[in-house]
Amino acid sequence: MKLSVVIVNYNVKYYLGQCLESLRRALKGIDAEVIVVDNHSHDDSVAYLRSRFPEVHFIASAHNLGFACGNNIAIRQSKGEYVLLLNPDTVVGEDAIRASVAFMDSHPGAGAHGVQMLNDCGERAPESRRGLPSPMVSFYKMAGLCKHFPQSDRFAHYYMGSLSWDVPGRIEVVSGAYCFLRKSALDRVGLLDEDFFMYGEDVDLSYRLLKGGFENWYLPVRILHYKGESTQKSSFRYVHVFYDAMLIFFRKHYGGMNVLWRLPIKAAIYAKALGTLVGTTVRAVRKKMGFRIPKGTSYPHYIFVGGEDVVKSCERLATENALSAEYRVAGRDALETVHNELLGRFGGRDRQFCIVYDTDLYSYQDILDAFAACPLRNVHIGFYHRKENRVITMAEIIGG
Predict the structure, then answer these.
(1) In 306-362, where does DSSP find H-type helix?
(2) Which UniProt keywords apply (predicted)?
């Protein structure tokens, strides 16, 4: 078998369903298996998805074992020459998997590679290419030098900002959201470190691959990553887990360094965690006290684009859910023209807009490419799934 796709799920059944639907298309013609480990979700993920995706092997854990452990359970059962670790809150373009397999076949020294991840506006996520968080690299990031000099080889090494986005390039850290691995490399360096419950395990594995003599690469192949839809980033637990992962990585790989370096770095991590907790608390208090976004900017205006029958279904769905919406009937070949026209109308306004495309008519690849060609921060990606009569965006799930 050529490929094993491994997904760890926790309470995001609709996003996972969309991810699996995109995988169906992307895996056509590839000898592959898909393994989903459900980390004791409370939203009936397995029961909901098992009948819809009979080709997928579901493992329902009786406990939330964490991201690293969940992936390792599936990797040990996998049969593929390659293993793809994939987040459930992703959408994979139809060309992505074939390009990944072809690259690994032609680069035997590659242990892993990542891809160009887009956010829901079509912007390229900087974590698509990352450097190792050494003490100096981490200092530049925390001091803001990475942000102020985004293309500097030295100050922006955390996101490897000097690399081109348009050609394959050597990187140091591959994101766990889409981590395409050579199984024989895992056999040599070991699986994910289960001391990391969530976050940091991809950095640790990438570092061990480099130490093991393998190369890590970036490919200019696009996927959508909602970036954290499967986690509650506003929770105190998230803050604890995220910054604890930073400390685990630091102790594991830099614990032997001089105490004059260790103490400032630890202090910086604790200070950053404290600042995040304070910000989280302030936002929670404001929400409880009733502070809201000004009227008219809270909810997006939807533009539904698809075939005539689909647009009629979307109109009913929008009416039933009291959405601010409009509709465009367009054929398969008109996506780029319609998209550019809509960007011209809505770009730069204060209000948020969401262009929702019919996934039966348009390919995921074409939708992602259209948004990536001209990303606007007030125009977001939406998908309409006809079979489920459901709209999925980063902000909300409607219908179904």
Answers:
(1) 308-320, 335-346
(2) Transferase
Q: Could you state, in order of their start, the residue ranges of all structural domains in the chain?
A: 3-132+151-225, 301-399
The pTM is what? Answer: 0.85
| DSSP-based three-state secondary structure for 62 | coil
Q: Kindly report the CATH number that applies to the domain delimited by 3-132+151-225.
A: 3.90.550.10
Measured CA distances, 184 to 79, 191, 212 (Å): 11, 11, 12
pLDDT tens digits along 108-157? 999 999 999 999 999 999 999 999 887 778 778 877 888 889 989 899 99
pLDDT digits (tens, 9 = 90+) for 311-354: 999 999 999 999 999 999 999 999 999 999 999 999 888 899 99
The CATH number of 301-399 is which of 3.90.25, 3.40.1350, 3.40.50, 3.20.20?
3.40.50
For residue 291, give Cα distances in angstroms to 214, 277, 282. 51, 19, 11
